[in-house]
Design goal:
Elements: E1 21-24, H1 30-41, E2 45-50, H2 53-65, E3 72-76, H3 82-95, E4 101-104, H4 118-146, E5 149-154, H5 158-161, H6 167-187, E6 192-199, H7 211-219, H8 226-237, E7 247-250
Parallel strand pairs: 1-2, 1-4, 2-3, 4-5, 5-6, 6-7
Length: about 260
């Protein structure tokens, strides 16, 4: 049997994150905050924002406690609104002067179509889907200027599971799935990689459940913790540039779907 000469096909050399400029939408709670802290620990410069000052304060304190306050810039913004998008990328231009990676993560929960009003649905769509389009649009412009970049979407397994009493939320996550797949084809010639992560059940602030119940489900391996998703983001970003991990699903061992 002929042996493969691995030296002739290149070595596995993970991408370095040191100095990379990363914007994380919804980065002050849950998956976003865990991801920001983990990527900063690998040398990245992260920019985070959320809608509320208390959560931002908690996040900045977490960076200080970890001795990484110099690696984060945070502010408040609501990207369900046009002015929130504009403020976000004003901050990017002022503090980053370029963008290497966008992690589209911001989301709000919602159940089925029998609940809420038109204005409620509009807000969910703006946050969970339209902001992904708008932030990607702004990020792509800046990435093209510097010769490439990477966009990661945090979607949801609900895009495929489509459970009852989740139709509004599911619609937004299915939209993210379709958008990410089409966007990848649009921008790959510009040296921009696009990836989608679809988690199963995760114990974040989005989940309306007592903390004790979340802990019980995590102990039973029925629910993930935010750090699980953050670790997958790190793995994805550190793949050699020739590799693009397009779509990944991560769910608890004991989750039934």
């Amino acid at each position: 049997m002929q042996q493969t000469n691995f030296s002739s096909i290149g070595k596995y050399e993970p991408e370095e994150l040191t100095g990379k400029k990363i914007l994380i939408t919804g980065g002050t709670t849950g998956i976003g905050r865990s991801t920001a802290l983990l990527l900063a620990s690998y040398g990245a410069k992260v920019m985070v924002f959320g809608r509320h000052q208390p959560e931002l304060n908690d996040t900045i304190q977490a960076f200080k406690d970890a001795g990484m306050e110099g690696k984060v810039h945070g502010f408040t913004a609501d990207i369900a609104e046009k002015k929130g998008i504009e403020e976000t990328f004003k901050q990017v231009d002022e503090h980053f002067e370029g963008l290497d990676i966008l992690i589209n993560n911001a989301a709000v929960p919602f159940k089925g179509i029998e609940e809420g009003t038109y204005d409620d649905w509009q807000y969910v769509l703006n946050t969970n889907l339209l902001s992904y389009l708008a932030c990607s649009h702004e990020a792509v412009k800046r990435m093209k200027e510097k010769g490439g970049g990477q966009i990661v979407f945090i979607g949801s397994l609900s895009a495929d599971v489509r459970s009852a009493n989740s139709s509004v939320y599911t619609a937004t996550k299915a939209g993210i799935q379709a958008f990410s797949e089409a966007l990848r084809k649009e921008v790959q010639s510009s040296n921009i990689k696009v990836s989608l992560i679809e988690p199963g059940l995760v114990g974040t602030d989005l989940l309306d459940m007592p903390a004790e119940k979340k802990l019980e489900m995590q102990q039973k391996e029925e629910m993930l913790i935010p750090e699980d998703i953050a670790s997958l983001v790190l793995f994805l970003l550190r793949q050699p540039w020739r590799c693009n991990l397009m779509t990944s699903s991560l769910l608890p061992v004991q989750q039934s779907i």
